[in-house]
Amino acid sequence: MTDPFQHREQSLENRFFYQQDQKLIEQLRQHEQAEAGIEQLAAATGIHNHKVLQELLDANIRAESIVALSLIPLIFVARADKNLDEKEQDAILDAAIEEGLQPDTPSHELLTSWLLKEPDQELLEAWRHYINQLCKELPKEQIADMQQHILARCRTVAEAAGGFLGRGGISDAERKMLGHIESAFVTVE
Question: Rounded to the nearest 5°, which phi and psi values hold at 112?
């Protein structure tokens, strides 16, 4: 004859260990997904610095949303004066189209979320680290071309709203942000 309390105790113990196993399995699955995400992002960006890749993942940048990464400076320039003007938004969307960003893609969804809600400063810092790492790995001519291209698009966005009250082009806040973006391209020799 079996003791009903012993059976219940065994059942509870089995359930406890089952739940613990499920937690461990979930942690392992998340770790494997994170590692796969880092590998995919490394392949998409050409960056192999684990810290930089982790910052990008933490900022919700994935291999499938890498095109949006090139638009981060534009978002921060447009939002520098705390007001995302419709003309600035249109300039950002035009730049997205030039980059080949298609609607209904993860990159487009990410860009849309940045247009609707101001992203955290950590996103800009992750972008700066990404650019700084690229500056260490790419030829100087390629870096110069990339810098010129990004800054030209940023200026187009900044000028789109026409400055303070539609006059004067680029606001002081936008000019300061442009300098911050440009400084990401400075490398230590």
Answer: -60, -40
**Domain segments of the chain: what residues?**
48-183
Residues with Cβ within 8 Å of residue 59, at least 6 apart in sequence: 120, 122, 123, 126, 127
CA–CA distance, 116 with 26 (Å, rounded to integer) = 32
- CB-based contact 106:37 (threshold 8 Å): no
Find out whether 42 and 35 touch, Cβ atoms under 8 Å: no
Distance in angstroms (rounded) separating the CA atoms of residues 96 and 102: 8
Q: Which pTM does this prediction carry?
A: 0.69
CA distance 44 to 53: 11
For 16-43, the pLDDT digits (tens) are 666 766 676 666 666 666 677 778 777 7
CA distances from 92 to 75, 125, 141, 175 (A): 7, 20, 26, 17
